[in-house]
């Protein structure tokens, strides 16, 4: 017997039609496509209406255009939740996109969706990143990518990653738990 798909209360905002098809394979939800970079006014109005009615989750591609669209939508819907699929989980034959992610990875990203905090917060600093080998050392990029996946905040360069830690409400306890998981992943990777 096939299990029922999880129903998502919020409206999910994606980039295109292929993304809609793939997200519908993962969950039951109302979905709006931005149409890529164009972001027509009527689409932004539709997204604003959905936000007032049910709330929204932004789930864009893990690439530059996807991040640009995420920022533009977040400007008009500041209370949006953000879901991130790691690039490695959205890659197929050199093409990056939500449409390439498995239903399992889409569901995981949606379950980890976070609201961006409107009040500036400085829980984490560059010192935290440096102490944990996430900045300024060989392998820092890969470790940030892995930690972003664990925390559900996506990949970012050091500055963007620090911003996400502080603006998506990551707690010290979540940070510590994620670092333990990261350590275990890296230990296994060493073959020890």
List the helices and strands and how they pair.
Elements: E1 6-7, E2 11-14, H1 17-26, E3 27-28, E4 31-33, H2 41-53, E5 56-58, H3 64-76, E6 81-82, E7 91-92, E8 95-96, H4 103-111, E9 114-115, H5 126-131, H6 140-151, H7 158-167, H8 172-189
Helix pairs in contact: 1-4, 6-8
Q: Could you describe the 3D structure shown?
A:
The chain has helices at 17-26, 41-53, 64-76, 103-111, 126-131, 140-151, 158-167, 172-189; strands at residues 6-7, 11-14, 27-28, 31-33, 56-58, 81-82, 91-92, 95-96, 114-115. With 192 residues, the protein is α/β, with parallel strands linked by helices. The protein has 2 domains: 1-116, Dna Topoisomerase Vi A Subunit, Chain: A, domain 2 (3-Layer(aba) Sandwich), CATH 3.40.1360.10; 121-192, no CATH class. The protein is built from 8 helices and 9 strands. Helix 1 packs across helix 4 (103-111) and helix 6 (140-151) crosses helix 8. The strands form 3 sheets. The protein has a 5-stranded mixed β-sheet with strand order 4-2-5-6-9, with helices on both faces. Strands 1-3 form a two-stranded parallel sheet. Helices cover 47% and strands 11% of the residues. The model has no long low-confidence stretch (mean pLDDT 92). The relative contact order is 0.12.
């Amino acid at each position: 017997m096939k299990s029922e798909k999880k129903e998502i209360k919020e409206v999910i905002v994606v980039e295109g039609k292929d993304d809609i098809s793939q997200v519908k394979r993962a969950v039951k939800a109302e979905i709006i496509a931005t149409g890529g970079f164009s972001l027509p006014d009527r689409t932004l109005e539709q997204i604003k209406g959905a936000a007032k009615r049910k709330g929204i989750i932004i789930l864009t591609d893990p690439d530059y255009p996807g991040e640009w669209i995420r920022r533009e939508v977040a400007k008009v819907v500041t209370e949006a939740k953000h879901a991130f699929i790691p690039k490695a989980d959205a890659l197929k034959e050199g093409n990056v996109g939500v449409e390439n992610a498995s239903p399992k990875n889409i569901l995981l990203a949606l379950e980890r969706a976070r609201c961006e905090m409107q009040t500036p917060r400085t829980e984490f600093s560059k010192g935290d990143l440096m102490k944990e080998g996430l900045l300024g050392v060989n392998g820092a990029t890969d470790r940030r990518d892995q930690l972003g996946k664990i925390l559900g905040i996506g990949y970012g360069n050091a500055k963007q990653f620090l911003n996400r830690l502080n603006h998506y409400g990551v707690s010290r306890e979540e940070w510590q738990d994620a670092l333990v998981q990261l350590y275990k992943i890296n230990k296994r990777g060493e073959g020890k």
